[in-house]
Amino acid sequence: MRNLSLLITIAGLSIGGIAETHAQTQTEMNAAAEADLAAAHAKLNSLYKKVLSTNADNQQFCSDLKEAQRAWLKYMEFHVKTLFPIKEGEDPRSMYGSMYPMDVATEQTVMIEARCKELSEMLRN
Length: 125
Hints:
Blueprint: H1 2-15, H2 18-21, H3 26-54, H4 59-83, H5 92-96, H6 100-124
Helix pairs in contact: 1-6, 3-6
């Protein structure tokens, strides 16, 4: 599991803004990953609203998209839980170390960026 954490961290460093911020400490890297996640969420929300407004005349599409988005958010939540399994009462930092917040945020950011691409495609069609 620690190898997965390292892989996700390396992927995040090459994809996201973590490397761009020149964070030096784990606390700074965690904060940078959280900032990247917040930016990704903002982009996702903006695209989602844009797709809905662009298709406002198609109620079935909007209803289906809302349902799909709810399902996707649940999928993301549980997918990340499977990547970093934690038993009830366990401290994730004792399991995965101080990198845990960064690893989770990086994985979520990668997933959100992929969803943004899907939503962007909907705007092109």
